[in-house]
Structures are given as structure tokens and as C-alpha cells.
């Protein structure tokens, strides 16, 4: 039995063309998700056996063009050029065929062997479009297969066509006539292109065109000083002067002209319905008056779904892990190993798994919103406000979700196409006060501001929002300056996604989280646990005996914490945090908070030797209030510091994975802590002096 | 009021207006994006609606919808083909002569 013939197929197409749905239908469950080398863009590949052929599909990022401007374009283009797939299948959103062909042409010019899938064929029919498929395919030098990917219709025809195209060799080479002047320039450049530096990788005509377009990718490859670059520039200047327009515009016009010609010949359009269902829905959803409230309501709904509903499974997981913990602590003799397994490993795993229900639910909601097309409307509605602070309309949803939990919120920034917008959003999300910080506020506000607890907590949230806005503006101004990212965004027609695609969409995120972030969080939690467990033989040089129970175990665990690495660290940083009104006890609590912000509460409980570390526990409140060094001002400062300082390890880990570099993750931890220090310093010093003056 | 000869920038149009692109003055990444998304010299655009907060604006062209910020639409020069029908009606009521009756 001879080995199966292998075919590599790259799937290209516009965003919203149903490319991913087609990919899922073609590959079934056999998918592998990785990353393109060096970047955080997903690379999906899958296999399918058809009539004895082993077909490998690569789902390229959705792009509108193959220039050098966006990340996705570069990746798609580089893949086609360097990996040289046997066939490039262009998935076309048929109702939108003219614009989709803009990309198709550029792939053709790369010399790839192509095939076209006329997806969403049913929608096109309903809109009154009648495509003469054979003629259409012929005009583009290839074959066109109609399909409805969401209903898995046309799949076999596509597979047959792939095999046929593969066996019958290269498709006819279609060339666009760019007009007299440009063609002259192209011919001259081609003639001088016997340079072998490309080793036949690219068609000469394509190189000539790119040179004239001043394509950044090609120029960096040839080098600025290359004689052809200068030659192309001369031609550019001459043509632009002659035709009175920039070259990019001339080329685009020629392309669209060519496209219009093809469509005129092969497509018949009968009378279109004036108001599509999408138009009617949008009249309400993006309505001048109703649009905003509806949007806010939907946000609230998702928030409730994710965090209120998600609270149940989170609780179950917590209880389950608690049982597991108890089981092990009873099984093993009391000591280091036992503690390592129960507090360290189980605690660490718990720290990863505890986010799963929220991530699952949030991404289910987001996948649904994205696949239906509502996300684009959300960005459309919010962009005015977001743009004022230097962000993109799409930044709103992730930031809003940060109020529940920063971890899934940062993962949600994937919807932002522009890397700068995405990074800025990721960096300010930590200031959205997450659910883990709330216990700290409830404890402190309850103890020190019993009358005004609610208002005080609200002010803290507000400070977070203001800081986020401030930092967004600062980042745009100083770090990411000069790059004004386009908002230009498509508003796709509303489509009901299949359950399968929504779940797949969600599952990919969950998988990413478990595999990539989970491992780091676990490791980091273990390290933090070690820091609180390993004892340093040092004597306590403070006479503050924490008040509380007399029970021996409490004093021992308090002393144990004090003498641990974490405790040592807390005392070490005391001089740094004293200007904020904090002492070493708070220092230890904050160090613990680095693992997870709610640990600030339990650490305080341990230090003050209070057994019940429940946030509403009266003993803990009393213990704090009785400590003379803990004043309402200091309590407020601690709340603000907890709000602002470094996000928890889980968040840092996700930033690392989503931003793709350790540098930004550490930067996030560092700048937030510095900001926390500065703001708390100001509040404490001003507060101290004002209150002092008042007395 | 011979509006079809007037050239105006895209950001100044109102929902319901239809126009044709005359020139694109924008440069850089934004222009590239605009071209990639299907806006080019000679294409017809209809203004669909404005976002609740006043910006961005939704446009309809060639079978799809696109949204641009007003500052991005500023660089696109268009010639008006048809205005919102409401305005014409109002003008007629005020007694002004509309082009078709002059």
C-alpha cells in the first residue's frame, strides 16, 4: 500500500467570511492550536483524509489584504511565501464578494495555486445575487465552489476540488493590467531583476509591484541601499506626478476596477431587499437613544452570568479542594511535606482551577457575542469614550470584565487587533478592582468606617477607574506615542452561530489558560507558599504582641509567619512602606497578597493570631482596631494600596502569555506597585498633615 | 442648490445621504486600511447612522457595513448624490424652489 499523498492547504480570507467555521467543518475535531513563531497569533492546523489523500489545513489569520501593515497580514503573507502551501483556498463571503476579491487578487499575484470557496452562498442568493460559478472561476484562473460552512454544505465538493486542483497542476496565471504608466515601470524593474537574492521565491512581477508600492517587508529584505529601491522610487515620483495621485491609490483603483469587471461579467444581481434583518436589528441595538442602555444591560447580564453564576462552581471547587486538603493532612504526618501538599500543591492547583468557571462562562458569552457580530456594535457604541482616553472601542468589554476578575479580562483583549491598543488595555486592566480585592475593602471599611463603609468602598473603585484612565493617557502619550491606530471596522451582518462553533471558540481559550497560564500560576504559588513556610532563624525585634486568642497554635502560626522568608521580606520592606503609614505586619500581608489579593485578609488574620479569618469576623475587626498603629487613615491607605499595587501572580502570568514577553508582565507588576506607592504616599502624607492640623 | 457638484468631506454627511468618493486625502496606516476595506475612488457610500455618543459613523457600501471615526472620514472627499428625503420635503414646504421645478 503506497503512502498517502500529502497536500498542504492554507485557508485565507477576510474576517467574518466564515473561514474558521469552514476550517472546523473540514478538519472535524482534528485540530491543533499553536502559535506562529515569535508572536501571540494563533496558528490552527488540522488534517483530513479524502480519497486516499492526507490533507493538512492551516487556518491563516483573517485579513483584508496582504500588505505589510498589520501583524496578521505579515503572518499570512510570510506563510504563503515561505511555507509554500500546495493550494491556497480563499474563503469568500459571497454577499460581500467585491471586497473579498481584493485579497484574492493579491494572493493570485503571489503566484499561489488557488481555489475559491463561495461561502454563505445562501445569503448571497437571498440578497438577489446569481453567481455564474464556472465563469467566475475561469476569470480568476481557477475553480470556485459554493458552500454554506455553517451548515456543513459543500464540504465534499471542496475536498474534491482540492484534490483535482492538486493533481492538475498550477492554475492559470491571471495578471491585472495596472495601466500604461505602471506597466512600463513594472517591465523595467522586472528586466533588472535578475538578482538571485530571491532564489525564485517570489514572482518577479510581484516584487516589482511591491517595490513600487514601497512595501516595508520587501524593502527591508533588499536593504535600503539596493539600487532597485531607488529606481522604483524614481518611477513612483514620475508616475505620481503624471497621474496626480499617490501610487497606492492608483493601484487600488486598478484592482477594484478589475474586480468590478469580473463581477459584472459573472454575477447577476436582481432587485435587492432594502432593509435586511441586520438593518432592522441595528435600528434598535445601535439606536441613538436605546443603543447605550441596551448595551449596558447586556454588559450587566454577562457580568452577572459570569461571576454570580460562576460563583457556585467556584465554591464547589473550593469545597472539593478543601476535602482533598483535609484528606491529605490526615493521611500524612504533620510537617513540612504535609504542608507542602495541602497548602502548596493543592493550594496552588486550586489557585489555577478556581478561575476556570469564570473563564468558561465569560468566554462562552464573549464567543457568542463575537460570533453573532454584536461585539462590533459594542465597540461602535463605546468608541467615543474609549478614544478620548486613547483606547479603542473594543477595549471596553475586557476592561469592564476586569471588575470581576483580571485574569479572563486580560485574555479577552485578544479581540483587539492592534497590538498597541491591546497592550495598553492589558496594562491598565489591573486597576479595575477585581473581586479578590473586595474582601480587603469589606474588612477594613467595616472595621474603620462602619457608618460609611459602602461609600468608602465606592471611592476606592473610583480611584481605580481614574488611575486606569490616567495611565492609559500616559501610555499613549509617552510609550506608544505617534501611532494612531485606525478604528475603521467592519460591522458584519448578524448571524446565528452554531453551538459547535461557539463552544469550540470558548474551549480554545480555556485550553490555552490551563496549558499555558496554569503551569506558571502553579509554579508561582508554590514559590510563594515556600516563602511563607521556610523559616529563617531570626529573632523578632518588635515587641508588638498581637492580641487575640491565647491558644498555642495561633501564636505559633503567627510566629511562624513572622519568621518565614515572607515575614523577613515584610520586615525588610518596612522602611519603604513606613512613609505610607504601614508597618512590618502590613508588609507581610501585602507580600502574601502578591499570590492572590484575598490572601491579604487571611495573612492579616494569621499575623494578628485570629483563628477566624472570615472577612466579617468581629474578632479580626477588633484585633485591627485595637492595634494602635492601625488608624482609619492607614486603613484607607491599605485599601488604596491593595487596589493599585502589583496584580496577583495569576494576572501577571496571563499578561506574560498574552503579551508574549516577560518584559511587559514584569513592567505591569513594577509600574502598578510604584503607582500604588506614590498615590498611597500622597494620601497618607496629606491626610496625616491635614488631620494633624485639624487636631 | 445643485448638490451633486459640491464636494464635501465624508464626515459632514448625515444619515441617509448617498455619495460617491472623489478623492482620498488621508495618508498612512489609516489610508491603507480604508483602501483594504473597499473604499476607493468612484465607489458609492451611503451614510447609515451615527453612534449614540456622536462618533463613530456607520456607512454602507457594496454589500457591507463599515464604521469610521469622524476624524478618519475627514480625509475622504465625496460628491453628494442624494440627500436624506426629509430635508427635501422640508424645503419644499418652506416654499423654496427645488431643482426639479426650476
Can you give a write-up of this model?
The complex is a heterodimer of chains A (695) and B (102). In chain A, a hairpin with a 6-residue loop joins strand 2 and strand 3. Chain A has three domains: 3-168, Rossmann fold (3-Layer(aba) Sandwich); 180-269, Helix Hairpins; 293-484 and 556-694, no CATH class. Chain A has a seven-stranded mixed β-sheet, with helices on both faces. Chain A has a two-stranded antiparallel sheet with strand order 7-9. The longest helix of chain A is centred in the middle third of the chain and has 41 residues, at 291-331. Chain A has 695 residues and is α/β, with parallel strands linked by helices. Chain B has a single domain (3-82), classed as Ferrous iron transport protein A (FeoA) (SH3 type barrels, Roll), CATH 2.30.30.90. Chain B has a six-stranded antiparallel β-sheet with strand order 1-6-2-3-4-5. In chain B, strand 3 (44-50) and strand 4 form a beta hairpin. At the A-B interface, helix 3, helix 11, helix 12, helix 16 and strand 10 of A face helix 1, strand 3 and strand 5 of B.
Topology:
The complex is a heterodimer of chains A (695) and B (102).
Chain A: E1 5-13, H1 19-27, E2 31-35, E3 42-50, E4 53-59, H2 71-83, E5 87-93, H3 97-109, E6 114-119, H4 121-126, E7 129-131, H5 133-139, E8 144-146, H6 155-167, H7 180-191, H8 204-213, H9 216-222, H10 227-243, H11 247-266, E9 267-269, H12 277-285, H13 291-331, H14 336-353, H15 356-372, H16 374-388, H17 396-401, H18 406-411, H19 419-428, H20 438-448, H21 453-479, E10 489-491, H22 499-533, H23 552-562, H24 565-572, H25 574-577, H26 584-593, H27 599-607, H28 618-626, H29 632-644, H30 649-659, H31 662-694
Helix pairs in contact in A: 3-11, 5-11, 7-8, 7-10, 8-10, 13-14, 13-15, 14-22, 15-22, 19-21, 20-21, 20-28, 20-29, 21-29, 22-30, 24-26, 26-27, 29-31, 30-31
Chain B: E1 7-9, E2 18-24, H1 28-36, E3 44-50, E4 57-61, E5 64-68, H2 70-73, E6 76-82, H3 85-93
Antiparallel strand pairs in B: 1-6, 2-3, 2-6, 3-4, 4-5
